[in-house]
Amino acid sequence: MAITRGIFSSPARAWTAVVLYTAFLYSTMTLAFNLYVRLYDHMGRPFMDRLMSWMYLPVVLAVLAFVVFFLPRSLGSYAAFVLICLALAYSLKYLEVPAKRFHFFQYWPLTFFVFDALRFRCKDRYLYVWTFALVTLIGLGDETLQGMVPKRHFGLLDVVVDSVAGLLTLAFIGFVMGEENYPWGRLTKVEGRKSKVEGHPNADRGVQNLE
What we know:
By secondary structure, the chain is an all-alpha fold. 75% of the residues lie in helices and 0% in strands. It has helices spanning 11-27, 29-43, 45-54, 56-70, 75-94, 102-118, 124-148, 156-177, 189-197, 203-210.
């Protein structure tokens, strides 16, 4: 099944967003690290430990509001959302180095961008497989570049965290949001009627009549 709605209206715009966001991640690795070190030295580890965990709370609450108010009410989607949150909480607790917890914050937007870019070409499970593979590859590139920077090193665990961030984001899309609600939530009546006429020989005329 092809996803007809998305964040971007064309592959060119979607891939531009992927490239720009990836360049942003790569270009800020030293700046972000230096900022973290300064905060760590000034505020101490206990503060950074709490900050790198509790900063996810407003994000989770915002996503919960989206699930409740913009998605169809479904026990299955609620259960999937709870399981994803538990997996995230466990991952954050497992990562003893506070800085590594920030990777989830960096890579879930990237996963959405890559997913949206690949939806123009890939369908069904291949969309998820290739999205996961590309996000993992970008994470690997990030760590490879860090290994070339003085006083930094290649971290295999960081690549795993980046991949897990992508995996949890894809689980949210597939099991909580649902492809039919991607990316903004439930279809309105007009949008739903538009989607029914897509693919018909007189689709353009039918959409015009609906508006």
